[in-house]
Amino acid sequence: MSVWSDMPMGPADPILGLTDAFNKDTDPRKVSLGVGAYRGDNGKPVVLDSVKKAEQLVLDKAMNHEYAGIAGVPEFTKLSLAFAYGKDSSALKENRVAAVQTLSGTGACRVAGELFARFRGEGSAIYVPNPTWGNHIPIFKNAGLEVKKYRYYDPNTVGLDFEGLLSDVQVADDESVFLLHACAHNPTGVDPTRDQWAELSKLMKAKKHIPFFDCAYQGFASGNAEKDAWAIRRFVDDGHSVALAQSFAKNFGLYGERIGALSVVCNDPDEAARVSSQLKIVIRPMYSNPPVYGARLVTEILSDDALSLEWSGECKAMADRIISMRTSLQGHLEALKSTRSWDHITSQIGMFCFTGLTREEVLKIRKDSHIYFTEDGRISMAGITSSNVEYVAQSIFAVTG
Ligand code: PLP
């Protein structure tokens, strides 16, 4: 008998729990399409050459292991901001962006949630798209916010419900926080067009809403990091006080290094200094200060033109491999004379494909074919390779016809 004897078993995480189930499966045909982590065409994790070179540079510098400050490694945050907002961003030139290094994108979301709960009020609303990345909901709830959903995805068109989105933005109380996926929306792979972003920005401005961009896939959507930052930059140009969560997990392949940033665009440097001070007050009792290794790697890459260029090419190659797997998966399903339309596989962008498969179909594919993906029908395209794509198509076809 211990104090923990009555502790109930908690449910497995809907995404990470899948990896455990996959690892336990002994069937040789098994395929893991759950977690959004890039794999090469050999199905193995990839370390980018630009990252390997950065690792060598860091090693050569024989740096010490002192603590970073609460806000992290300053060179990293500076480069990270230029990466998202653009080297010529007037907000950066005017020194009015508050920023801290965070524990990847998840940590950035959590710190932002805490900041909103403190300064917008405990229990105040954050609007997230329906659907959204599953972890957003507990992150913001645990930070003390009320999570509300705005319309985003229309299953009938397998596209954006733009009218629904605008109408929900319109009816929300003024000055509400709206979480927006900067690009490559997870899980749907459906993004607004540039015209739609511009219209949304205008309406959010009129409503004085606070746009909070979650940018976990910069470079992964189009293969071009500058293009993928378009919506963020447009909102800043339109005068919004944007908040931004950045992750370098997917685009730099630095998943386990937990490297990201949170920033808030302010009116002037004085306001930015005050926001910065409060971010540090949130962070200090939470984890004190972030790890330095990932920050050093990203700093080496983004501060060196040749390495940055090499990284861009590698990022584009990852995006291109995913695009070619989309074409291949759709092609195999069509060749099987599937009765369903699979056009959305190639029209969606980013790491995921929101297949439209029902929960029952997902579970049947898992049981019959040992292919693991989330119950909402989302598959990580990054796990599809030229060796398993035909098997995945056949397995989908076997339950959908
Ligand atoms: N935001 C979105 C939309 C994501 O899809 C993810 C990862 O899947 C994250 C944030 C956070 O990822 P990480 O904490 O690994 O940077």
UniProtKB/TrEMBL annotation:
NCBIfam families listed in its UniProt record: PRK09257.1
Cofactor dependency: pyridoxal 5'-phosphate
Any Gene Ontology biological process: amino acid metabolic process
Recorded GO CC terms: mitochondrion
Pfam family, one: Aminotran_1_2
Gene label: ast
Record has Transferase as a keyword: yes
Catalytically driven reaction(s): L-aspartate + 2-oxoglutarate = oxaloacetate + L-glutamate
Protein name stated in the entry: Aspartate aminotransferase
Additional free-text comment from the UniProt record: In eukaryotes there are cytoplasmic, mitochondrial and chloroplastic isozymes.
Domain of life: Eukaryota
PROSITE patterns per the UniProt record, alphabetical: AA_TRANSFER_CLASS_1 (PS00105)
Keywords for the protein's UniProt record, in alphabetical order: Aminotransferase, Pyridoxal phosphate, Transferase
Record family assignment: Belongs to the class-I pyridoxal-phosphate-dependent aminotransferase family.
E.C. no: 2.6.1.1
Segments forming domain Aminotransferase class I/classII large: 29-396
Subunit structure of this chain's protein: Homodimer.
